[in-house]
Amino acid sequence: MSSRSKKRTRQEASADITPLIDVVFLLLIFFMTSTVFKKSELALLLNLPKTESGEKASQDSKVLTIELSKEEVAIAGKKFTVDELDEKLAAIKDKNKPIDLRVDKEVQYARLVKILDVLKKYSLTNLSLITEK
Predict the structure, then answer these.
(1) Domain 64-130 carries which CATH code?
(2) What's the rounded Cα separation, in Å, for the pair 35 and 58?
(3) The whole model's pTM is what?
(4) Which residue spans traverse the membrane (predicted)?
């Protein structure tokens, strides 16, 4: 019993969490750099025409984006009919507001002219046609 009567000392077990913190930060950096950031609110999947040279679409939040596909029209990521498009564009007070027009390459010319006519009707002439490089 004498060996059992000795008091055992309890050692505290402490884990070194420094490597764990390093791993967490490395994972955080990895996911931040590999994530695709949402560039703009787009509603329609468009097959844009390709060009040899051109400018990228503006990333400015003040730019109004109009998308035109064979059947649908979208403004700032929300789908509208052509009549609703007319009402939405009539409400724009700033006539110099920049507008990015994204048109699918399969859209018929008459449909594009109809949209351009509505833009001209409200004197919205600060227009950029967006293409792919």
Answers:
(1) 3.30.420.270
(2) 21
(3) 0.59
(4) 20-37
